[in-house]
Design goal:
The complex is a heterodimer.
Chain A: H1 7-27, H2 29-37, H3 41-64, H4 73-97, H5 104-115, H6 131-146, H7 148-155, H8 161-169, H9 181-209, H10 214-229, H11 247-260, H12 264-271, H13 276-280, H14 282-305, H15 311-326, H16 336-341, H17 345-357, H18 370-388, E1 398-400, E2 404-406, H19 409-435, H20 440-451, H21 467-482, H22 485-499
Antiparallel strand pairs in A: 1-2
Chain B: H1 2-23, E1 24-29, H2 31-36, H3 38-41, E2 45-52, E3 57-58, E4 62-68, E5 73-79, E6 94-95, E7 98-106, E8 117-127, E9 130-131, H4 138-165
Parallel strand pairs in B: 1-2, 5-8
Antiparallel strand pairs in B: 2-4, 2-7, 3-4, 4-5, 6-9, 7-8
Classes of the chains: A mainly alpha, B alpha+beta.
Chain lengths: ~500, ~170
């Protein structure tokens, strides 16, 4: 039996959503600073309008939904699921006002792609887009990567620490580096900003050495950092990484993509000197193994096709796409058409596998995640061992993830359910792609890229693709980023509103 | 005898033309054609025209230009010996120069780490770029005014209520 939601439930959701929207309004003022610095008047107006719309809708919700009741798990899940949709919608306003999007749907696609750190793009004439709008595209990745809720928790206190944790955990993350969830949120931002400053310095210097002007080198450096560390994949240039023609820059971005794909808790262990954890952690080990397997697949195919006979081109093209795919970033130094025309089906399958698997949990990557793969594999080993040993033997399998954990059925069940849901999502998108006339492998590639929040494109994602497919990819990006549960709770809430008992 | 010589010259001319057409594509090609048929054009001399976008990237042995033809942008490597005269690079504030490039196309350039690129032999500026005017439209100005008014009213109400009830 499900109960019909009460008016107070709506108030709790609306009140917290109001706070999140106001936080977004503040974030939208950052591009205004960039616009003023680079003397871009019209974009400044776009962001002031969007920011004011955020504040108006946020304050209206705060006024209409005043409540003192604490958030429970259901509310937390619904708030987060809605917050990401609302953020994508409001974040699309300044993009649409730029005039670089054919429709508001395209701007919403871009915005969702940014917040979910996917990197698929529908911007028209990117090379003439203002720096202010470009900064927003990348900032949305930085904000989305760290978590919209993390921002709200850092800026506004959500009533009660239990409520704060519920809303925080609903955003597909459960790391509590510090005892208090609000302190954790602030710590996440502190670490991210330290990395941002250092990353921008390194990338800016590399850009300057590779021929960019100082101002542009550091602007592009900051943008690339935000998109690489948050495994997003946007760049301020239509050619993506190809614009820079720089092996050095690609090497730096590889390091950033790997950093971004690591569990945030592991970052904390590394920061506090516990470097051994890197080698013991099941996630890191699984990540290493899946990386080797997928790389082997790509190597075999690229060697068979003799596409890159020399070692440096082979590494730059083969390994770079793989790291980009496996970390869920989506940076590319190839044209989409080259995937279709030059790469073989086997290497495409390797890339699809890498995209689908993703990085670590509690990181900015999407996809199935290494921990789940590791847990399922451990459970398989346990089952095989159990069969081979005498029946009376009680076997206990353990795995190391920040601490030694005894493998239990609940771990395996949770991992298998999520993996199945991801497979369903990848397949559903691929079927929709085929429905619109795209070939199977290309549909699967693009669908996996959207659902695993990667951003590599085989050429389907263009302004001219069917609107329905744009909507499907938006939903895939949303579901993939939030890892399903909060979305199911939202759907359940809607069903309960109509069919629940009073 | 003269007729035979004429015939030989004619066939030699034909052979020369044939050889030239195998290695050189006089009409400009689009980025789409070049990327799509990269294997076919690999190592051939091609012509390509488009707008210079983004800053040119100066390196020791030459300069990288990125030229967009409306479909996609290609990287063009310009060795030091090839003369270039850039007035405007395309971006938010300017439309870049329209350049006509003749050069060797590479599907996977061994000199540049496997990039798909063109090595320019000759660059002609077809059209000098220009500054792009960006005024703030009146509807945006009006919209901002109305929204500011509405926000101010809401803020006042919110602050009064907050003071009364200690909302947050």
């Amino acid at each position: 039996m499900i109960l019909r939601p009460q008016i107070n439930d709506l108030k709790i959701i609306g009140f917290s959503l109001g706070k999140l929207i106001c936080a977004l309004g503040f974030v939208m003022l950052l591009p205004v600073v960039i616009g003023v610095v680079f003397s871009e008047a019209s974009p400044v107006f776009d962001f002031l309008i969007a920011s004011e719309l955020c504040f108006i809708s946020g304050i209206l919700l705060l006024l209409l939904c005043r409540t003192q009741t604490e958030i429970d798990w259901m509310h937390g899940m619904i708030i987060v699921a809605l917050a990401w949709l609302v953020a994508a919608f409001l974040g699309a306003i300044p993009l649409y006002l730029s005039g670089h999007f054919v429709s508001f749907l395209d701007a919403c696609f871009e915005s969702m792609s940014g917040f979910s750190t996917t990197g698929l793009t529908l911007v028209k004439d990117l090379d003439h887009l203002s720096l202010t709008h470009n900064f927003w595209r990348h900032l949305s990745m930085f904000v989305g990567g760290q978590g919209i809720v993390v921002i709200a928790l850092s800026v506004f206190m959500i009533k009660g620490s239990a409520g704060a944790f519920r809303i925080y955990a609903s955003e597909a993350r459960d790391e509590r580096v510090l005892p208090n969830v609000i302190s954790t949120a602030r710590f996440i931002w502190l670490v991210s900003i330290v990395y941002l400053v250092l990353g921008t310095l390194v990338l800016g210097t590399v850009g300057f050495l590779e021929g960019l002007s100082l101002k542009r080198a550091f602007f592009d450096g900051a943008c690339i950092f935000m998109a690489a560390f948050d495994t997003g994949g946007f760049t301020p240039r239509s050619q993506n990484m190809l614009y820079y023609h720089s092996f050095l820059l690609e090497t730096v971005t590889v390091s950033l993509m790997i950093l971004g794909a690591i569990n945030f808790n592991l970052h904390y262990h590394i920061w506090t000197g516990n470097r051994k954890e890197v080698f013991k952690n099941i996630e890191m080990r699984t990540l290493g193994i899946t990386l080797l397997i997928t790389f082997a697949i790509i190597v075999v195919d690229l060697l068979r096709l003799n596409l890159y006979p020399q070692s440096i081109p082979f590494f730059r093209k083969g390994f770079y796409q793989l790291i980009s795919a496996h970390t869920g970033t989506g940076y590319s130094n190839l044209y989409s058409m080259q995937f279709v025309r030059e790469w073989g089906n086997l290497s495409l399958v390797g890339i699809i596998m890498a995209m689908g698997l993703g990085g670590s949990i509690c990181s900015t990557t999407g996809g199935i995640k290494a921990l789940r793969v590791g847990v399922i594999f451990k459970s398989l080993i346990q089952d095989v061992k159990q069969i081979m040993l005498p029946e009376s033997t009680v076997l206990q399998q353990k795995f190391h993830h920040l601490k030694m954990i005894v493998l239990e059925d609940k771990h395996v069940r949770a991992a298998v359910v999520t993996v199945l849901l991801y497979f369903t999502l990848y397949s559903a998108g691929a079927i929709c792609g085929m429905f619109f006339g795209y070939p199977f492998l290309e549909s699967l590639f693009e669908s996996t890229s959207a659902a695993a929040n990667v951003g590599l494109s085989i050429g389907i994602t263009t302004v001219t693709m069917p609107s329905a497919l744009k909507v499907i990819y938006i939903l895939q990006m949303w579901a993939g980023r939030l890892e399903f549960i909060s979305i199911f709770v939202l759907l359940g809430f809607i069903v309960a509103a109509f069919k629940g008992k009073k | 005898m003269i007729k035979k010589a004429q015939l030989v010259i004619f066939f030699l001319f034909l052979a020369f033309c044939f050889a030239r057409t195998n290695n050189c594509f006089a009409d400009e090609l689009s980025s789409g054609e070049l990327i799509k048929n990269a294997k076919e054009y690999d190592g051939k001399t091609v012509s390509y025209e488009g707008e210079l976008i983004g800053e040119s990237l100066k390196r020791k042995e030459g300069t990288w230009l990125n030229i967009h033809d409306g479909g996609d942008a290609l990287g063009v490597w310009v060795p030091v010996k090839v003369a270039i005269n850039i007035h405007y690079a395309g971006g938010y504030k300017a439309t870049g120069d329209r350049l006509y490039v003749t050069g060797k196309f590479h599907r996977s350039c061994s000199m540049h780490g496997g990039d798909l690129d063109m090595h320019a032999h000759k660059i002609i500026t077809k059209e000098i770029g220009r500054v792009r005017p960006h005024g703030v439209s009146s509807y945006k100005q009006d919209l901002l005014k109305y929204l500011s008014g509405a926000l101010l009213c809401l803020l006042v109400i919110f602050l009064i209520l907050q003071k009364r009830q200690k909302l947050i």
